[in-house]
Design a protein that fits this description.
Elements (H helix, E strand, L loop, with lengths): L1 H35 L2 H37 L2 H29 L8 H36 L2
Helix pairs in contact: 1-2, 1-4, 2-3, 2-4, 3-4
Length: 152
């Protein structure tokens, strides 16, 4: 059972770390770079970037969540449950809160150079930052748990 727990913990931390790194990159590098180019180009590039990032980040979030849940199940350590809730929350948050903004940004009738497009891009960045913060908190919880339980 200990070997399986270690595998679950590794996969949870690895998946969460990859998700967090990708989310941080998007918030700190990719989206600001898009915004520097103006709303017309930023909204044009948003679609292809969104499609690629969705596949990657959704997969990582689900893998990290299921592995962390399995870690909690085998250890009953509440820190794994807390991290599970945080990394798992990004999926419903995306579907319920961010998706309406994504749809507006992807709407072909949106005037890509408009003030509305600019406002949607700014809103999207703020919403995505929530996902980034949740994943970062989950990662810190997972790492602290690993250190606490694997040091003599």
């Amino acid at each position: 059972m200990q070997v399986m727990t270690s595998v679950f913990e590794f996969v949870a931390v690895f998946g969460c770390a990859l998700f967090t790194g990708a989310a941080l990159y998007i918030n700190l590098v990719e989206h600001p770079a898009r915004m520097e180019c103006g709303p017309a180009l930023a909204t044009t590039v948003f679609g292809p970037s969104y499609r690629r990032a969705t596949r990657l980040q959704a997969s990582l979030a689900i893998i990290a969540c299921l592995s962390a849940l399995s870690s909690w199940w085998t250890t009953r350590d509440l820190s794994w449950l807390a991290g599970t809730i945080l990394i798992g929350s990004v999926v419903p948050f995306t579907l319920l809160v961010i998706l309406p903004t994504n749809r507006k940004l992807l709407d072909p009738s949106l005037d890509r150079g408009s003030e509305k497009a600019q406002q949607l891009l700014v809103l999207w960045a703020r919403l995505h930052a929530v996902r980034t913060a949740c994943s970062l908190m989950a990662l810190v919880i997972f790492l602290v748990s690993l250190i606490a339980h694997h040091t003599p």
